[in-house]
Design a protein that fits this description.
2 domains, 36% strand, seven-stranded antiparallel beta sheet, 300 residues, Alpha-1-antitrypsin, domain 1, alpha+beta
Length: 300
């Protein structure tokens, strides 16, 4: 198990559009026997996220999806909903899916426009809330409060200062551990202040590339994810917040993903020459940089 990579950089993790997109691909194919993985992150996604979240999708009214064999129609669908991510042509027999979460939350009690002053004296636009709610939390051995802000729809937005967080899907477990171990605590302050947010993030979901849908009774024995994009937007002010996140997957029919760049052998490498009928290779070599030279022909 690789150690978690920690970061202080802004990042988002919005799994429901990913789950919805994979589910949409299953529904489009109709005869998926199983989904096979190519790495540990895909295994984690299928076992810990997809299996538990798949059944939630029909109950989330803020999610919509599309599947189509024409990448232009999916790209138009994304454009109409305010997203800039675009899929490329899927090739013969391929198709694509896209899924979007559009979540609007209005604070149950509106905040006031304020300023956030950082420890080094910088100022940023912020929100102040006073006499808001009765429950605040902490986790053991952590001095930072967990703020719980309720929306008119009944959702709860939690805020907590953290110095660094894991990257990728590990962030899911990190947050769930905090949420499940939070304990109610007295709050010693007159309200709270937090920054306004305007975020627009586009990422490649590299970890899901190569995931295969096995369809032995279909036209092709399998389909494989060859493109995976996600764009997430978040705006938050004294009125509330809005999150929009879209995932687009391009899926090839019965072929390995096609990369747009060449594979490069740029470290010492093994070479061996085999011939049918022989029990051993004709030649084996481990070739380091000292012999990386132009032979100027094959004569010896």
């Amino acid at each position: 198990m690789r150690p978690e990579t920690m970061t202080t950089k802004t990042q988002t993790l919005v799994v429901y559009p990913i789950v919805s997109a994979v589910r949409e691909a299953e529904m489009f194919l109709k005869n998926v026997e199983t989904i096979t993985i190519t790495n540990d992150i895909q295994k984690k996604f299928l076992n810990e996220i997809f299996s538990s979240c798949k059944g939630d999708i029909p109950r989330i009214k803020e999610i919509e999806s599309i599947a189509d064999t024409n990448h232009k129609r999916i790209n138009k669908w994304l454009e109409e909903r305010g997203f800039q991510i675009r899929l490329k042509d899927f090739g013969p027999g391929g198709f694509g899916v896209a899924s979007m979460l559009d979540l609007l939350g209005e604070w149950a009690i509106k905040g006031k426009k304020w300023s956030v002053q950082t420890e080094d004296g910088e100022y940023y636009p912020g929100i102040k809330m006073t006499n808001y709610g009765k429950k605040f939390y902490r986790v053991r051995d952590n001095p930072n409060y967990i703020i719980d802000i309720e929306t008119r729809e009944g959702d709860h937005v939690h805020l907590m200062m953290v110095d660094e967080v894991p990257t990728g899907l590990a962030l899911q477990n990190f947050v769930e551990n905090i949420h499940n171990n939070k304990q109610e605590t007295p709050f010693e302050y007159d309200g709270f202040i937090f920054p306004k947010i305007d975020l627009d993030e586009e990422i490649m979901l590299d970890w899901i590339l190569g995931l295969q849908f096995i369809t032995p009774k279909g036209k092709e024995p399998f389909y494989v994810i060859s493109q995976a994009l996600q764009q997430t937007k978040l705006k938050m002010n004294e009125e509330g917040f809005r999150v929009k996140s879209a995932v687009a997957l391009g899926i090839l029919a019965g072929a390995a993903p096609i990369k747009t760049e060449p594979y490069v052998i740029n470290r010492p490498f093994l070479m061996w020459i085999a011939r049918d009928g022989l029990s051993k290779p004709l030649f084996i070599g481990y070739l380091n940089k000292d012999v990386w030279k132009d032979p100027a022909g094959l004569d010896m």
